[in-house]
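FIELD: query
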Amino acid sequence: MTLSRFRLSARDFAQLAGDCILLLLGASLLGLAVNTLRPEATRLPWKSAWDRHIETLAFRANIPVTFLQGVRDAVADPATIVLDARALDEYLEAHLPGARPLPLLEVEQRLIEYVQLLTFETPILVYCGGADCDDALELAKRLRDYGFLHLTLYPGGLAEWVEYDGPTQSGDEP
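FIELD: result
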């Protein structure tokens, strides 16, 4: 068997290319239709829906979320501990007032530093960089696994806080 048997004429090649394009177009339209008809909870996220992706994951993990006013209240409440799940260098650059660093990758090492501040009943607010960052959610889940009961996630993170003119601090002081 030689390859010469499989040579296509220009007309056959054009027909094959056209069929491939129609097949791809049909598959794309079918995918869009299926995604549109799916229930909201299982719909594939688009850019506009991605902003709520972390909130959806938090809901599924039974982690309460809060938004700007709730964060303002938490920052003003001395009983609430605000934890920043971002890397330490990001925390040092800017963080919410009163926030303490607890990078997700350093939880076990740094949690010891907060033993005197935290009880299992302490209200804790966790946040990270923004709506596309899931470190705060992962931190909240880990803290819950350790036994902390009053956890709240701020999915908008520092990006939303700054966007709405929330005050920030820099350096290593909470």
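FIELD: remark
The beta strands are 81-84, 100-101, 124-127, 151-154.
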